[in-house]
Every structure is written in structure tokens, then in C-alpha cells.
Write a structure and sequence with these properties.
9 helices, single chain, alpha+beta, 4-stranded antiparallel β-sheet, about 10% strand, about 60% helix, globular
């Protein structure tokens, strides 16, 4: 079963599941986000989502963390069936910074809408169901960390603002990631809600950043999301 739990220092959340849980999610996200040329105005958000997918794929190859989770088998069942079998399954896991994870969950809303409008409007689409399951797990984990009123404001905004990532300057996610990493545990607890809202509000800081990036994009003839900013992540992150 796909699981998302906050890390000890609230730096981010650990996404974990067995190989097939993560493989299903990765493949569903690739199908929902589609061809970059088809959703040109969402390129930045698409590449950002796929970078999280890449980490999940690395996890399925055992390049991150392993967890051992009870599979429900007990001595009685094993004896009944004459089996010798481990009573735990291997789960693969990776950590994702909270601003990055929240942005991923938000951005997927736009791609689900686009997929329904342009590809498949069926209520029974399995790829959308898999992505919704991931979003629900993120939301459930986030709800545990926020005050009730903070969570309700976040959910209300999520449902009323659409599209959220149209021509989005995804470099802002790096800025929030780095700012969030610098906080201590108590500050993270106090300000996680504000970081979640800043991903949707397009505040003055975001508007100023996007304006600078747009000028650079025009000058260099590059796409908005291709403009690099100075964003040096620490070599070691205390999760």
C-alpha cells in the first residue's frame, strides 16, 4: 500500500510502497502528464513532477531507503498451509521536501483536468485513480501537520483556483525548498501552512521572480522553466 509519512524533522515526507505500488504511480503520472509538446504552457510543472518520479524510480531500484513492513502472515496461517515464508514485505522509500511534494500534488490537478478534457473523460480511468490516491495520501499527511483551519483554507484554495500551474515559474519551488530547509523544527511546524499557500497565491516575491525570469527568457530565447537560478542545495539534508 502506498504510504506517505512526515519525516522526523518535518523537512519533508517519506513516500513508500512495494515495487508495484510505486511502479503503478510512476506509470500513471507519466500517462497523465503526457507529451511536453501537447501541454506546452505546463512544461515547467511537468518537468518538476517528473523529477519527483525519477526519485521514485530510483527508489524502486533500491537506491534510496528500504523498509520492512508486516504482510499479515502469522505462524498459524503458515502452519495451516505448510509454508515457510517471511512475515514482512520489502517497501521502497524516498524522501521529498515538503514544498516540492505539495507543489507536485497541486500541479497534478491541472494535468488530470487536461487529460480529462483532451484524452479520456471516463470516470473509470485507472491512471487518474492512481494519481488521485497519491494526492489523497499527500493531503492526509499534510492534514496531520496543520491546524484544522489552516488545512481547510488550503483545500478550499486548491478547489477554487484553476489552473494553478499555467506558465508557472517553477524556480520558485526551489526558493521555497531552500528557505524551508533553513528553518528549525518548530518554525517548520508553525510555517508549513504558509509555504503551502505561497505555492498558490503568486505573492509579490513570486511575481518579481517571474518578471525577471521572463526577461531572461526573452533575451536567451529559452523556455521559462529552462532559466537557471542560483539554488544550491546542501549536500546533506537532515530529514
Amino acid at each position: 500500500m502506498l504510504s506517505i509519512q512526515s519525516t522526523a524533522q518535518l523537512t519533508g515526507a517519506r513516500v513508500s510502497g512495494d515495487f508495484w505500488d510505486l511502479d503503478e504511480l510512476i506509470n500513471a503520472i507519466y500517462k497523465i502528464t503526457g507529451d511536453e509538446n501537447k501541454y506546452y504552457d505546463y512544461q515547467g510543472a511537468r518537468f518538476r513532477i517528473l523529477s519527483v518520479c525519477y526519485n521514485l524510480r530510483q527508489a524502486t531500484r533500491g537506491e534510496h531507503q528500504l523498509e520492512f513492513v508486516s504482510n499479515g502472515l502469522n505462524k498459524s496461517v503458515l502452519t495451516q498451509h505448510g509454508l515457510i515464508f517471511p512475515n514482512k514485505n520489502v517497501y521502497f522509500a524516498t524522501e521529498v521536501l515538503w514544498p516540492e511534494l505539495i507543489f507536485t500534488a497541486i500541479a497534478l490537478n491541472d494535468f488530470i483536468r487536461l487529460h480529462q478534457e483532451l484524452i479520456d473523460s471516463s470516470d473509470w480511468n485507472m491512471d487518474i485513480a492512481a494519481v488521485r490516491k497519491f494526492q489523497s495520501a499527500v493531503a492526509e499527511c499534510l492534514e496531520q501537520e496543520l491546524k484544522e483551519e489552516e488545512y481547510l483554507v488550503f483545500i478550499r484554495m486548491l478547489h477554487t483556483k484553476s489552473p494553478l500551474t499555467f506558465r508557472y515559474a517553477t524556480q520558485y519551488v526551489d526558493i521555497l525548498n531552500l528557505e524551508y530547509i533553513q528553518l528549525d523544527l518548530e518554525a517548520r511546524k508553525a510555517r508549513l501552512a504558509s509555504f503551502a499557500l505561497r505555492l498558490m497565491l503568486e505573492d509579490d516575491e513570486y511575481v518579481a521572480l517571474k518578471s525577471q525570469l521572463m526577461k531572461a527568457a526573452i533575451t536567451t530565447k529559452k523556455a521559462l522553466h529552462e532559466i537557471e537560478i542560483t539554488a544550491k542545495y546542501p549536500e546533506t539534508i537532515l530529514w
